[in-house]
Amino acid sequence: xxxxxxxxPPAGGAAYREYQRAPHHRAFAIxxxxxxxxxxxxxxxxxxxxxxxxxxxxxxxxxxxxxxxDERLVFAEKSWPGAWGPYxxxxxxxxxxxxxxxxxxxxxxAYRNAQGKSLKLSSLRGKVVLLHFxxxxxxxxxxxxxxxxxxxxxxxxxKDIIFIPLQVRETHAVARQWAADNALKIPLADSGSQGExxxxxxxxxxxxxxxxxxxxxxxxxxxxxxHGLVIFSHVGPVHAWSEYAPFLRDAASRSGK
Length: 257
Fold this sequence. Notes:
Blueprint: H1 10-21, E1 27-31, E2 35-39, H2 45-57, E3 65-69, E4 72-73, H3 90-94, E5 110-112, E6 118-120, E7 128-134, H4 139-154, E8 161-167, H5 172-181, E9 200-202, E10 208-210, H6 211-214, E11 220-224, E12 230-235, H7 245-254
Parallel strand pairs: 7-8
Antiparallel strand pairs: 1-2, 1-3, 3-4, 5-6, 7-11, 9-10, 11-12
């Protein structure tokens, strides 16, 4: 088992190497977003697999997949980009509740796009939306943004995949100036924030919602399917954004039916 699981941050890679040295029965599970879980020394392979999946689920709201069990590599690489599925049907989407958890309909946030046009998330139904809450005052946000901009460029051929980076607790002018100073070409949407003392996001209904209710820390990222349902959520920087192009293409091709 020389291959390392995809999408893992350095700590996850170290955990997998430790797993490889651990006694039987052992299992290792992963989830999109870089979460993992593993156990060893269990009474059976089945027990180890169940506990590894449970450990991964405790660290992530995403679906966890078994990567390895004892000496067996059980990971299906070709199916990995479809791990955000199965995608909801139109009938299932119509019954979805509102919220930020996978399977819920994301709050209908109002914003302005990079060209200054007033929009709302619900107007983007029929497109996959990568919704990213960030700020130029946030060190991990600054570190992550170049790779996110590269991903945006790599997916420029897909008109049904939309990136909505929304700044928090700073004005759009400040965020845009930082991006320009760093030669970043990703279009920045405008959350409407008036500055560091403004913690509110605006809703299409005319109301507001505290930014910490959407993102307990920054950056935070959500991906919405073509019905506007959450299929991916992650608090903190995402490791290896370039690896998520296949996930977004899969969601664009198969969600919204």
